[in-house]
Amino acid sequence: QITLKESGPTLVKPTETLTLTCTFSGFSLSTSGVAVGWIRQPPGKALEWLALIYGDDDKRYSPSLKNRVTITKDSSKNQVVLRMTNMDPVDTATYYCAHEDNDVLTGYRSIDYWGQGTLVTVSS
Amino acid sequence: QSVLTQPPSVSGAPGQRVTISCTGSSSNIGAGYDVHWYQQLPGTAPKLLIFGNSNRPSGVPDRFSGSKSGTSASLAISGLQAEDEAAYYCQSYDTSLRGLWVFGGGTKLTVL
User: What is the spatial distance between Cα B39 and Cα B31, in angstroms, rounded to a whole number?
Assistant: First the structure.
């Protein structure tokens, strides 16, 4: 059974750096093809992809946030960490981590498991 | 502005059939990348509803179906039920500067 859970501060001040941790179970991020990504959703708005890390440590970033976001993993702790610098009130959102892998039967790759999300408010 | 375009809202009466479109471009859906659909009930995380354009995960009723053609995809929900009222998002992949995982802007389904 795959589960993911986000943790971190619920309130950060403008210009501060946000650090969020995704702790997962039920899979290994050392396995080829597995990936964990971060997605955010401002209140009442759409989903926005932020970053992605694969089991081989390949990393991908949203071009619009590439200069502010860093994703890392600690496979021994089953954790993925997202750092976002220079936080602004427009970064107020629910932040989700999610698991991506190939379906065993069909081979199709999709985001098949999501964490419950954590609401981060940016305010002074 | 989301990379994939969805109608902001759709509605239908119980028992009816509704469709939600997802329009992309030649750098995402049109490039042959698969489309997935997620259902987000109020106050909850998104849940995978359709993967690989038309496949349902275990436990998803066959009232939900997906299709893809050219630069667009569609989600159809037949036999609408009150519990289907939710936001629906399409997702694909894009190799342009606009990003890797790309999402639609979401469609709010209201069951009348």
Answer: 24
Q: Inspect the interface and report whether the beta carbons of A52 and B99 lie closer than 8 Å.
A: no
3-state SS string over A45-112? CCCEEEEEEECCCCEEECCCCCCCEEEEEECCCCEEEEEECCCCHHHCEEEEEEEEEECCCCCCEEEE
Written as six digits, the tokens of B21 are: 């479109």
Please identify among residues 79-118 of chain A the ones whose CB lies closer than 8 Å to any CB of chain B.
96, 103, 106, 108-117
Query: Cβ atoms within 10 A of the Cβ of B80, count?
Result: 21
Helix (H, G, I), strand (E, B) or coil at B9: strand
Is the pLDDT at B99 greater than 70, yes or no? Answer: no
Q: Inform me whether the pLDDT recorded for A3 exceeds 90.
A: yes
User: CA nearest B52 in A: which residue?
Assistant: A108
Q: Where are the beta strands (DSSP E) in B1-106?
A: 9-12, 18-23, 36-40, 47-50, 64-69, 72-77, 86-93, 101-103
- pLDDT tens column, A95-107: 999 999 888 888 8
> How far away is chain A from the Cα of B50, in angstroms, using its nearest Cα?
9
Cα A22 → chain centroid = 7
